[in-house]
């Protein structure tokens, strides 16, 4: 019978050639790798223009004030905005905060683009609407003249149209 050769492990395990990314203890949004601090943030493509600004002015202003480098996906590409800094953790944190504030303001001022209509013609909703209508008409704090003119049953939507 022949003996099978045993597999031997090397005495020393060679270190991995891939750089290790370490998540910063102070801020889990930021990683540290090879002497630079990095972070990624998702920005919807509709707001990339706000981040870049007119002829790149907003991007340059953020990069100069925070001493970070921004990598923004080009038009038609998807991906996160990357922030890199060789200076320090605080710079990347400041850059992230500035971008978050800028995008929050852009969201607040953006025009509405969608309308959602949900059918509410179930028996429970129709019954609750009828109860609401009766409560408004029977409200004692509303003057009788207002009830006659403003709260006419014809002014309410038909329950089947709710």
What is the structure about, briefly put?
The protein is of the alpha+beta class and 162 residues long. It has five helices and five strands; from the N terminus they run βββααββααα.
Structure overview:
Residues 35-104 form the K Homology domain. Residues 1-23 are annotated as: Disordered. One of its GO terms (cellular component) is nucleus. Residues 1-10 have a biased composition (Basic and acidic residues). InterPro entries: ASCC1, KH_dom, KH_dom_type_1, KH_dom_type_1_sf. The protein is of the alpha+beta class and 162 residues long. It folds into two domains: 22-109, Ribosomal Protein S8, Chain: A, domain 1 (2-Layer Sandwich); 123-161. It is built from five helices and five strands; from the N terminus they run βββααββααα. The protein has helices at residues 48-52, 57-66, 89-109, 123-137, 144-150, and strands spanning 22-23, 30-33, 36-41, 69-71, 81-85. The chain has a five-stranded antiparallel β-sheet with strand order 1-2-3-5-4, with helices on one face. The longest helix has 21 residues, at 89-109. The termini are far apart. The model has no long low-confidence stretch (mean pLDDT 80).
């Amino acid at each position: 019978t022949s003996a099978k050769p045993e597999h031997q492990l090397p005495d020393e395990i060679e270190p991995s050639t891939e750089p290790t990314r370490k998540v910063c203890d102070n801020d889990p949004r930021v990683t540290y790798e090879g002497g630079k601090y990095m972070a990624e943030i998702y920005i919807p493509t509709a707001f990339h223009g706000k981040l870049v600004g007119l002829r790149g002015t907003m991007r340059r202003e953020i990069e100069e004030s925070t001493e970070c480098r921004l990598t923004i996906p080009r038009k038609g590409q998807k991906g996160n905005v990357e922030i890199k800094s060789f200076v320090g953790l605080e710079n990347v944190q400041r850059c992230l905060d500035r971008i978050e504030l800028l995008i929050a303001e852009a969201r607040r001022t953006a025009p509405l683009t969608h309308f959602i209509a949900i059918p509410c013609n179930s028996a429970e909703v129709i019954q609750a609407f009828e109860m609401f209508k009766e409560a408004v008409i029977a409200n004692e704090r509303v003057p009788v003249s207002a009830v006659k003119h403003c709260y006419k049953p014809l002014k309410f939507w038909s329950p089947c149209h709710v």
